Fold each of these.
Amino acid sequence: MHRTFALAGLFMAASISANLSSADEALMTANVASRLGLVEAWQRTIPTPVGAASLADQKIFVHSESPHVYIEIVAGAAPAATATVPAATDDAEPSPGAEAKPVAGKPKSADTAKVLMRIAVGTPNARGVSIDQKEAERLASNEIRRMKRRGIQATMRTTEVQRVVLYSLADDGTLEARDAETGRPIWIAQVGTQGLHFGEIGVSEKYVTVVNGANLIQIDASNGTIIYQDRTGNAPQFGVINAGDFAMIATVGGGIEGYPLSDPTIDPFLEIVAGQAMAPPTTSPTSSRTAWSTDRGFVYVMELIGKPSTLFRLNTNGLVSGRIAAASGDRFFFGSDTGQAYALRATRSGDVMWVVPFGEPFYDQPLVIGEQVMMLSTYGRLFSMNIDNGDLSWDKPVTNVDQMLGGFGNQLFVRTMGGSLSVIDVKTGKTTGTFANVRPGHLLPNTQTDRLYLVGESGVVQCLRPIDSELPRFIVAPDRKPTEELAAETETKDPAEKSPFDPGSTDPFGTTADPFGAGGGADPFGAGGGADPFGGSGADPFGGGSAMDDPFGN
């Protein structure tokens, strides 16, 4: 009972603070947003003890298996199809699950129907009762009849859009799920023990996973109910990620642990690797393949579907200190402290797409926008490379950059070293505007949709969208060489060809051969083919002839 009242109080506080003006927040004003072709979608305060400083983690996740359903009234004749999904941005391809069905016989990109009214299925009506799809269709039909009496021709259609959720975890254990498109709270829960460290949260379609000290807590992503809790075998280093069938953690001792997401009775797995993880692992957006770097100079890739297995490791030139970036087609991008920029594709044996040398160290996670990979050096110089071959996209790097926030269309949003918001033209690398009064205090990078999220010091989150994008567009980098095609090429490679990768089953100390130098399981003292180690080839070791001869020569 007390827990219920406490949660209700948190919801009430969040609702009240949502309507307060944040004059002390250095977020984006309507005037600046208009200059950038943006409009504020919503602004809300996240429930935390002392603002953004209390945020343990925030994560944006796209739920493709449980989309939002809208009943739309559109102007004109009835469309040929009854379901649509907004296409991705102009320089991206739709993600799996974001495929748009054609409207009026036209390709998805040509859907220019004017939406007159949109009813969201599942939202409460004036009496607080949730509107189901049948009720939404009834309301739309009544509205169409009213429009017809006014001489407006309109029809009804159903639109499904992937559900985007913002998950926020405070250091007092307050875990919140919020609709990232409307700012409406979905659920709030209290997890873990205050005083123990909260790490990065893991999110998948059905589960949210939290690490609190050495405790692993699994939560139902639909309603915030705690499903089960477990103790980790070793101390988590960063937090947890949900990938494939497992919640995966990198441990302080240099190991990898995985705990089943759907069946807690299955034993967790433990993988020993060479070195301690340098940053939290990164999962491919199109599979369960996960990559991370270690302080021994390796980048590992692991498959987390079914029985977990390490696919391969790459010995890099220098340490990869920053988090690895991922793109569709199991592609991973990262830079080292010696100034090497890498792109690899996580096939079974690994494929290095390109390596580009720079004279500047990289410590930050790259950002993939359309056909470009952005890498920020420790000197604040931002480079743009072609995603396919690593060729430089700009004439010169952009300087004075502290952090990348995200990008869509032709705009890249960054925070300068002075703390201001700056906007860069993605195609040319030219700075189109710097706004000294817009100073986000906490970073919430978004690479999945055409939304910009700014977080103020007090915990206020501001969501901005393009003026012409009422529903989100989902960003996926184009992939001209799918993984399946590359896997077939890998199978035909000459087995004698030298590879920069170690196979996944290699010994973490870097060798599978006999430590004394003998090859192929031969005798460690160098004798081959089972011969006598003293070189006698089966003869008497003292040099005698026939076995019947007198050894003294008589």
Note: The chain has four helices and 33 strands.
Amino acid sequence: MTRLSAPDDAPASPPYVHDWAIVDVETSGLRPAEHRVLSLAVLTLGPDGATREEFATLLDPGCDPGPVHIHGLTAERLRGSPTFDQVADRIAELLDGRVMVAHNAHFDYAFLAREFARAGARLPVRRRLCTLALNRRIGPPTPDLRLGTLAEHYGVRQRRAHDALDDARVLAGVLRGSLAGAAALGLDLPLVACPPKNGSSTAHPPPTRKVPCAFRCPGRMPQGGPLVQGMKVAFTGETRVPRDELAARAAEAGLNVMTTVSRFTSVLVTNDPGSGSAKARRAPAEGVPVIDEAAFLRLLDDVRPGVRHEEPAPASAPRPAAEPQRRSGASGGRLAGRRVLVLGGTHPEASAARARIAGLGGAAAVNLSAGVTDVVVLPGGERDRRIGRIAALKLPVHDPEWLQADDGGTPERPASRPAPLVLPMGGVIDLPVTAGATTWTISASWAQQADCEIDVVAFAVDEDGQVPGDENFVFYGAPDDPAAGVRLAIDGPTEQSITVDLAVPPPQIRRIAVAAAIDGAATFGDVGAIEITAGPGVSRALLAQATLDAATTERTLLLAEVYRRGPSWRLRALGQGYDFGLAELARRHGVDVEN
């Protein structure tokens, strides 16, 4: 074991000197475009953490209050309360010039942005901090990261859960404890500039969604027909019958109307094959049959029956017990239960060390957190800026030979915090779905980057690996696909998450692919390892994790896929990279990308 001492010039605790605005909202549902804020509380804190002002109010949403059994806010109780536009100026005054803080801040920010837009005003928030994202970085020894659990960990008393004012007061205490924990680890705060890249979407209505197709695609249309239910049909150019009407008639007949042409397209309909449109150019290159509008309308009168998609089991049906069946992962080994951070080395050397850690049953960390149990220092790692923190925390520091030794021991872990299953690339695990628990979160994290940004996206695709519609592409510009139950849930400079409600995807959605893309000139070889995790809900204990570390020149990376296996769902860790950017990755998944 290597012994390190903190150098004389070890960095002091980061100065988190900000004015804070603690926010909590109770809402009528989960989607800002459809639901409303029912109650709101804002607490302002000075840089010393002391409370300056408190403001809380019920709001009359002018709609059904939604899940009263959760928030207790009945229509009768809300009647006579001010509307949001009547208190918007006061809320803006409290938020302006301060860092907005919330637990799952993406949610609260999106709802506030939508309410301010409805009121004809701008949300005056320039930066926000998510205490859920911050505590993912800190890694406290708690069974989950729910607000109540963190409150207990940081010694904050919670009196009335789902009461906006009490939740805001609790969150203020959690923030104070979290800042102390982050300072001990020398962490940069995961502040998100506002409006973020996905923030603009809150000011626009959700896109018009296509009619889901209930039938499997039978392939290409033979010369002369017939059309068969499930065939993928695309249109391009001017038509005599309005395009919307053609698409509606095609969908009513059981055809799958697509916005792009790919090798999976059954037929392209156009009155001008030489128009030069992207679809007209690609159809002959892919061998896709081309017919004119008149021929299509004739064939539309005699569409043959197709094969329906396999119907999924109802969410309320009996399912496997909560303990999932684990597959293709490392559940034992002498490093089981350990979380090991690798410093220094060339990219191949660090990648090999992390692969060895996973092979021994350990988890390879990509950031320093309270959950790190050991540190391996490769050549050059002694110059890492985190060495001083590591020495101060008295973490065991090892030479590379430690990974080859026979006896590494197994540290004790709190019984309330079992280690997630470590998946290798290609590793698979079942995702249990029960009537009361259908949502899973797939998160990706990486080391802080100075020269690029990383975006996590998702594609809800059919059996051909193609999105049925552009709305099935979830990214910063369109962070929610209600029809498939896929949502960008947490965003930040070092971590982003996708949530999937597995009770929602229609039968034609066979797989949800989660990917990362670099915005900038860097590659994933420059970025280093990407850690992915999977767990139920948004803030509950993790079930599985994987460290993806094989990238070199790639600029996009398929991280994981959630896919159907009969009536069940599974997660597979991928790590498949490509040298092209996000636009080309989207095109290959059937998205109509505008240049």
Note: The first strand starts at residue 20 and ends at 27.
Amino acid sequence: MSRLKSMVLWKSILLTTLCALAIFGLWWWGLVHSVETQGQARAEGSLAQVQQIITREFLRAEETGTAFGLWWTREEGRLDGPGSLQSVIPFLEKGAIITNLILSREDGDSACVVRKDGAWNLVLFKGGRNPRRYLVQQGRWVPGPIDGREVYEARERHWYRFGAAQTAPAWTPEAYRYYTSTVAGFTFTVPVRNARGALVGVVGVDVSLEELTHLIWENRPTPGSRMIATDPAGRLLVPPRLPGMLDQGTRFRNQLAALSPGPRGDLLMGTVAAPPGEGLTFLDAGKSYVSASGTYATKGEPRMNLHMAIPTEDLFPGQRRFAVFTFLLALAAVLGVAWTMLDLHQRVVRPMSQLAKSATSSPGDSAEAMDFDSDIWELQRVGEKLRLAGRADRERERLLHQVEHSQRVDSVGMLAPGIVHDVNNQLTMVLGQITICQTLLEAHPELQPHLHAAEGATIKCAEVLRALMDYSRPDLGRREQLSLNVVVQEAAALLRRVLGRAVRIETELAPDLPLLFGEPVKLQQVLVNLGLNARDAMPDGGLLLLRTCRAGDGACLEVKDGGCGMSEEVKQRVFEPFFTTKEAGKGTGLGLSMVANIVAAHGGQIQVESEPGTGTRFRIEFPPSLRKRSGLAGEVADLESTGA
């Protein structure tokens, strides 16, 4: 058997160690959480940096288009030869994502500056045909090879029609595939008009998605980062740098392909819809990523959604191992603390709780409540002392209860005579006044029944007061031979008026009952008290059965209701004075106690049978009258016929 002091000592040491480990685990978790927060901030910062680079390049494209629009307006839309376009070259060298610069007139003449195989080419068209090609050498345009089959009708192109309909420079609202080409991109258009406002031509600056893709790939924060760009419709503009995307033809096929979002609408967790991507996924399975998303738009168009995912291992190498270690450490600490607390509860807390419950239990509780299971020596000794103290306390409470009960009965006996005397004096005055009224109102026979009823009620009140006196100081009173059936009939008639229509009263009277020797008023009081209790037990109404039968040489009275019934604890105390289950102010606890006293005064016995939900039955057995007179059977018949 363990000692409490030694057990608590080593348990405290263990608990302190586990708490220290738990604190360390929480600290480490906070450190990892801080690292993750820093990773998120780094991802968002990298995304913002890429957005700035894209903004810079798109602004350069706009500046190029706007500058040449102003220049061409001053030139009144002339396209004489390569010399007039010599100033294009410096602008093209600055724009990293500019693919084409096109100046097209309304009459079909066009100048196309095209990036081909990494070199700039100038192609002049007259009426959309008769091409002349020039190449850049030492900062100047020099004639190049000519393909007479080349045709460029700008007025049939999407970008030209869009720009001609504008009143100011504008981007095409969404990416599109260039005419008869697999290349897709945006176009910045500048309409050129003369002094009269008539359209002379349109300047177009093409920004291809291919050049935008290389720009984003070159500015990834880490080699393993994945970044995509989509348009508002969810189409892929810039694919991530994957082994399957290194081929240019594959990139062209997947540009403007619809995406299938992943869980929670995350496009990076989704795939490229087949057939272009054939279910191509963007992120590696089993890897943890820190992601960030943002929206890019310049002057409202073009609008792109940027999504970036950086592998956690790229940001913080070894972070996964640290997280696993921290989780295992915290789990071990939690399990250790839980085991320690459970062991303390089983060996200390639960036995002490049982001891405390036993110490605060009422005297009527079973002594078995003191029993508990503990292997601690100190708790066993305390339990034994509490058992002895509990026995003494219960004995003291029992004696105090008996003394209190005696004092209550004595107080009722002391107060009852004075109260009854004073009330009887007043009732005597009432009876006198009623008698005077009967004499004065003899000429009014219609009032006599009311006066007789008042006189009867006054006499009944006096008899009730005498019953209270009998309870506190029983005496033989005025007893006579009576029929139990007559008493039941009179009480049933009274109860039907008192209990109301909700309670249905039925009687089953045996014809061969012997006469009793007792007081009719008191026996009626027994039935009235039992009837009132039955009504309280049947708030929704029900059946109250009054039954008489022979019990050997005596008579038996049964009162049965269909109410809520009583528990075993209530049955054991139902006849105790002042015991009641009713709410405060609705019961005195004297009714059934008075019933028991009246039955005992008549030499009878009372029993109660009841269970919760099955109703209650009171069985009262009376001895026969010992006074034998001639014509006994006739008297019984006369009494019952009179009662009927």
Note: The CA atoms of residues 86 and 294 lie 39 Å apart.
